[in-house]
Amino acid sequence: MVYGLRYYFRLKGDNKRAISLPSLKREATLPVILNRSELKALFRAPKLLKHRIILTLIYSAGLRRQEAINLKTADIDFERKTIHIRQSKYLKDRMVPLSDLIARGLRKYLEAEKPNIYLFNGREPDGRYSPEAIGWIMHDALKKAGIHKTVNLHSLRHSYATHLIEDGVNIVTVKELLGHADVNTTMIYLHIARCHVVQAHSPLDTLYKDTL
To answer: How many domains is the chain built from?
Structure first.
């Protein structure tokens, strides 16, 4: 009703009344992630190497769906161990680390498939994979792996961020790796991550730890 009234006031040219209407708040929920055992089962599930590489790469680099679709073979730098993500959300480029494990898989995939321009060729007019097709890969793998959590392709990105924090990567670095514009967006993963709890202590004790 609120948004219907806003639209009505815009049509009538009464923008002041439209702005003064209350906004609707979304229900605050935490992202659902996959644990490490579930991820291993998920990555084993697809029969095709290409499908296994797609899912594993998305998790290993924390990619959005469209970022994975837009990747070109030239964006993978095996020598520098980086992935160049170009003009993603907020029209920003960023560099993320290329996992040694996924690098081995990518070399095998490139040798077998020999993709042209885009890393993952599909049936779109420009040769890219379609968003629907890449979503189906995730859905099918979840079914084969027997995972019943309410998750989707973006859950791999949520899992990536959470596991980085659990591995001790600081929140600002995770923000940059994800390409978030605001660190507050990244902070949500602190509510999911199971981090090692350090007992409260005086920094003086750790300053002279070797002499105590």
So the answer is: 1
Q: Among 67, 35, 55, which residue's Cα sits nearest to residue 140?
A: 55
Residue with tokens 């040219």: 13
Given a contact cutoff of 8 angstroms between Cβ atoms, the answer to whether 187 and 172 are in contact is no
Using an 8 Å Cβ cutoff, are 72 and 65 in contact?
A: no
Per-residue pLDDT in tens (0 to 9) along the chain, 212 residues: 777 777 787 777 776 665 565 666 766 789 999 999 999 999 999 999 999 999 999 999 999 999 999 999 999 999 999 999 998 887 889 999 999 999 999 999 999 999 989 999 998 888 899 999 999 999 999 999 999 999 999 999 999 999 999 999 999 999 999 999 999 999 999 999 988 766 777 776 777 777 65
What six digits make up the tokens of 79? 């020598």
What is the model's pTM? Answer: 0.82
Residue 91's domain comprises 36-147
In a domain, 157, yes or no: no
DSSP letter, residue 74:
G
CATH no. for residue 125?
Answer: 1.10.443.10
Whether 88 is in a domain gets the answer yes
Could you give the residue numbers annotated as active site? 64, 89, 154, 157, 180, 189
CB 187 within 8 A of CB 171: yes
Kindly state whether residue 210 falls inside one of the protein's structural domains: no
Q: For the chain, give the number of residues.
A: 212
Phi-psi label, residue 7: left if phi above 0, alpha if psi -120 to 50, beta otherwise = alpha
The Cα–Cα gap between 69 and 119 comes to 8
